[in-house]
Amino acid sequence: MRLLTFTDDGGTRIGVLKDEAIVDLGVAAPELPREMVAFLEAGPAAMTRAREASAAAPATLACSTVIIESPILRPPKILATGLNYRDHAIEVGGPDARFPERPVFFNKQSTAARAPYAPVYLPPESDQLDYEAELAVVIGRRCRRVAAEDAAKVIAGYTILNDLSLRDWQFRAPTVLMGKSWDTHCPMGPVIVTPDELPQPLALGIRTLVNGEMRQSSNTENLIFDCGALVAALSTVFTLEPGDVIATGTPGGVAAFRPGKPWLRVGDVVRVEIDGIGHIEARVEADPIGSFIQ
Questions:
Q1: Where are the beta strands (DSSP E) in the chain?
Q2: Per 3-state DSSP, what percentage of the chain is helix, strand, and coil (rounded to 5)?
Q3: 8: which strand partners?
Q4: Could you tell me if 130 and 242 lie in one domain?
Q5: Strand partners, 136
Q6: Model confidence over 102-126: pLDDT tens digits?
Q7: 56 and 113 both lie in a single domain
Q8: 55 and 122 share one domain
Q9: The domain that contains 262 carries what CATH number?
Q10: Which end is more exposed in the chain, N or C (fewer Cβ atoms within 10 Å of the end residue's Cβ)?
């Protein structure tokens, strides 16, 4: 299945992308939760019901008539992985780079989540906005201490994520939190593709284009630690919950290590593609968000 969250005049709810249109699960299976985290929390029975309902129901909503939202509007956790592609580790460390002996993690704040085609903001506090194409794992079951070989039991599916980063803020401190968590700096989607629709082990082409120019081009085969290893490492320390998102790392080609450091500028269009999932695309705009208290 290709699960998604969308909004139209009937509100925000979940559906299944089918034949380039959407099966509204609120109509096809009205007993199911209408929000993605609640749906995932409902467990395997809800997933089976959604699969049955979407197979039987027509796809009546054209994508052009709705707003495609981030599949998970507010992930409980956004967990990201650093230096997890061989080509990226080499561009950072040079030809004698040593690959990490264990996964390196950081987190992005959940408020950074952004719809897959919505604009992203360049704030006035920085001019070093960088892109990072990433395959992301969506957790489907509450779990702790999951062995790598059992990770498939807790993975609801996969999506696309752009780990946008303000490099100057990222490197101001040993932790990279402040450079990774600006509002709008985690666009993801457009769908969560369930594992049965993707070849295992994953060998997916992954690319970033800026204004049509190829900046990143690699394959998930180049991951140093695969999805199972990441789930195992994280769940050793803390409980993973339905709706948690694990970004698996970015390949080589980021602006920070390209000649001239071609940071993203206002007006740029950045597109991330992953074979078998689709693409996300965002225009960079000047940050219009002022201060507020609500």
A1: 2-8, 11-18, 21-24, 61-62, 67-68, 78-82, 104-108, 113-114, 120-122, 129-130, 133-139, 155-162, 165-166, 186-193, 205-210, 213-219, 245-247, 269-274, 278-286
A2: 25, 35, 40
A3: 11
A4: yes
A5: 159, 247
A6: 999 999 999 999 999 999 999 999 9
A7: no
A8: no
A9: 3.90.850.10
A10: C
- In the block, residue with structure tokens 């006035």: 124
Question: First vs last Cα of the chain: how many Å apart?
Answer: 38
Same domain, 26 and 120: no
Query: Taking the model in full, what pTM does it have?
Result: 0.97
In this structure, the answer to whether residues 21 and 106 fall within a common structural domain is no
Among residues 22, 40, 68, the one where a domain terminates is 68
Looking at the chain, the whole-number percentage of residues with pLDDT higher than 90 is 96
Residue 222 to residues 12, 173, 203, 236, 253, Cα–Cα distance (Å):
37, 28, 9, 24, 14
Q: Do 119 and 16 share a domain, yes or no?
A: no
SS3 144: coil
Contact assessment for residue 46 and residue 31, using Cβ atoms and an 8 Å cutoff: no
What total number of domains does the chain contain? Answer: 2
Neighbouring C-alpha atoms within 13 Å toward the C-beta of 227? 27
- Assign 3-class secondary structure to 153-209: HCEEEEEEEECCEEHHHHCCCCCCHHHHCCCCCEEEEEEEECHHHCCCCCCCEEEEE
Answer yes or no: do 125 and 268 share one domain: yes
Domain, as residue range, for 267: 78-286
**pLDDT tens, residue by residue, 192-235:** 999 999 999 999 999 999 999 999 999 999 999 999 999 999 99
